[in-house]
Amino acid sequence: MRARKQALEADLVVVNHHLFFADLWLRDEGVAELLPASNNVILDEAHQLADTAALFFGQTVSTNQMIDLARDSRQAALVYAKDTPTLAQAAEALDKAAKNLRMSIPEMSLRLPAKLVQTRTDFVDALDRVKKELAGLEAGLQSQAERAEEIATCHARSSELIHRFEKWQGKEEADWVRWVETMGRSLNMHATPLSVANIFGEQVMQDNRAWILTSATLSVGGDFSHLLTRLGLGEAQTLCVDSPFDYPNQGLIYLPPGLPEPNTREHTQAVVDAALPVLKASGGRAFMLFTSLRALENAKSMLADAFEENDLDYLLLAQGDEPKQVLLERFQRSGRAVLLGSQSFWEGVDMPGEALSVVIIDKLPFAPPDDPVVAARIARINEEGGNSFMEYQLPEAVISLKQGAGRLIRTETDRGVLMLCDPRLMSKSYGRKVLASLPPMKRTRKLDEVREFFEVTVQAA
User: Fold this and answer.
1) Do 90 and 140 form a contact (C-beta atoms < 8 A)?
2) Phi, psi at 407, each rounded to 5°
3) How does pLDDT run across 185-235, given as a tens digit for each residue?
4) Which listed residue, of 101, 124, 140, 359, carries a Cα 20 to 30 Å from 427's Cα?
5) Burial of 385 from C-beta contacts in 10 A (0-12 / 13-18 / 19+)
6) Are the C-beta atoms of 73 and 91 separated by less than 8 Å?
7) Which positions of the chain have pLDDT values less than 70?
8) Looking at residue 459, what is its pLDDT?
9) Separation of alpha carbons 382 and 390, rounded Å
10) Which residues have a Cβ under 8 Å from the Cβ of 52 and sit 6 or more positions away?
11) Nearest alpha carbon to residue 282 among 347, 351, 359
12) How many other C-beta atoms are found inside a 10 Å radius of the C-beta of residue 292?
C-alpha cells in the first residue's frame, strides 16, 4: 500500500509486465486498480507481450494454490473455529489430496494436452478426489465465514478455485487450449487462449493513452507483421532504428562447416568438437546456449573431458549448478570461463566488456511442436489455410535467436564471435531469411578467420 501511494504521487512508474497485466485484468473485472492512471504506456521487451497476455487472460488452477488454501484455512480454523474440528480436518484432507494429484503425474517439467492427460487413470482418480475435498472445505468455510474475516477470505478463495476447476473441465472451446504442466512440486492446469489479438488489440484501441512498444527483437528482417498480428495491432505505426554498434568491425558470425543435422545423436558432440578450437582462440570467455537441457547436460560432460584432455584451465559453469546471478558473477570474475545455459540465459543477461567474447548457439530455437499451446496454434493456422511454419514457427525462432545473439555485443567497444551450429542456416531456403535478421556482422566458415579475429582483438587491446 505504501508503494502504491508513492506511485500515485509519481510522474513515472516502472513495473514489470506481470504487474501491468494484473492491473489490466483487475480493471476489466471491476475489482480494483493496482496502478495509477497515466497518459502514456511504454512496454519494453515487447516481444514477450503475447505470451504474458495469454497467461493473464487465461485461467490456471494449481496444486500449489490448493495447498496454500488448505494451510491458510487450517490456521484460520484453529484460531477462530476451535469448536469445529471438522474444518481443520477438511483442510488437511485437501492438502493431502492436492499432493497426491501432483504425484499422479510423476514426471518433472512435463507439458501435456488435457485430452491426453485425462486418459491417465491415476490423474483422473486424484482429480476427482481433489474436487470432492475442495467442495467439502468450501462448504465448511461457508458455514463458519461469519466468525472471522480470515475464514470468509478463505471461503472466497475456495469458491474461485471451484469455478476455475469447472471452467477447465468444461466443454471444449475452439479458441482455447487446455493443458497440464508439472513444475517442481506443483501441477498446473491451464486454459490458454490460442490468440490474444482481439483481447489485447481491444485494450489498446479502447484506451486513450499513447502506447509505445519497444524491443531489440520486434521485427523479422525489418518486418513487424508477425508481432502486430499476434497482438492485434494492425493499425500501429512502426519504426526500425539502426543500432549504434559497428557490427561489421565489432563482430564475426562463424558458421562451422560439416556439422550433422541438429536432430541427430551426433550433433551435440560435433558442436563441442567445433567449439573447442574457438574457445582456445578466445581463451574461454564464452556463453554456450542450448535449446534443451538434455543437450546442455551432455555438452557439459563432453567439455569437462575435453578440457582435461587438452589441459585447458577454463572455468566450466552450467545452468542449474548454482543460482543464475551467482553463475554470472563467477563468470565475470574469472575472465576465462565458459558458461552453459538454456532458455533463461538467452535473454535478459547483460555481460559487457572482455569477459564475454564468444556466444555459441547449438541450433535454431524452434519451439517444441509437441508443446500443447504451440501444437494447437500450429493446427489452427493450418486449418485456416495458412503456413504455420512460415507464419508462426520461423518468426518465433528468429526472434529467440536474435535475443541469444544479442548477448554478444553490448557496448560500442565490445568485440566478439557469434558461432551458429545449425547447418540448416546454409542448407534450407529459410536460412537466408534467418541470417538476414541478425546483426550485419561479417560471416565466415573458416576457422582461421576466427583465430585471426581474436589475434587482432588482442593486438588492439
Assistant:
1) yes
2) -70, -20
3) 999 999 999 999 998 998 888 888 999 999 988 888 888 999 999 999 988
4) 359
5) exposed
6) yes
7) 30-31, 457-461
8) 58
9) 11
10) 17, 18, 21
11) 359
12) 15
Name the residue ranges covered by the structural domains of the chain. 39-241, 247-460
The C-alpha cell at 422 is 545449425
What type of residue sits at position 308?
A: E
Whole-prediction pTM value?
Answer: 0.86
Q: What angle do CA 374, 377, 381 make, to 5 degrees?
A: 140
Joined together, the cell numbers standing for residue 416 give 566478439
How far, in Å, are 22, 23, 140, 161, 338 from residue 32 at the CA level? 10, 8, 28, 20, 48
Cell of 361: 548457439
Please classify residue 82 by burial: count the beta carbons closer than 10 Å to its beta carbon, then call 0-12 exposed, 13-18 middle and 19+ buried.
exposed
**Residue whose entry in the numeric block shows the C-alpha cell 481443520:** 88
What one-letter code names the amino acid at 171? K
Query: CA 68, CA 403: separation in Å to the nearest integer?
Result: 36
* Cα–Cα distance, 389 to 395 (Å, whole number): 8
CB 58 within 8 A of CB 193: yes
Interatomic CA distance for residues 450 and 231, integer angstroms: 40
Residue 259: which residues within 8 A CB-CB, separation 6 or more? 267, 270, 271, 274, 421, 422, 423
Alpha-carbon Rg of the chain, whole angstroms?
26
Vertex 387, ends 384 and 393: CA angle to 5°?
115
C-alpha count within 13 angstroms, C-beta hemisphere, residue 328: 11
Single-letter amino acid code for the residue at 355: A
A 10 A CB-CB count for 287 gives: 25
Structural element, H or E, at residue 21: helix 17-29
What is the distance, to the nearest Å, from the Cα of residue 97 to the centroid of all Cα atoms in its chain?
Answer: 30
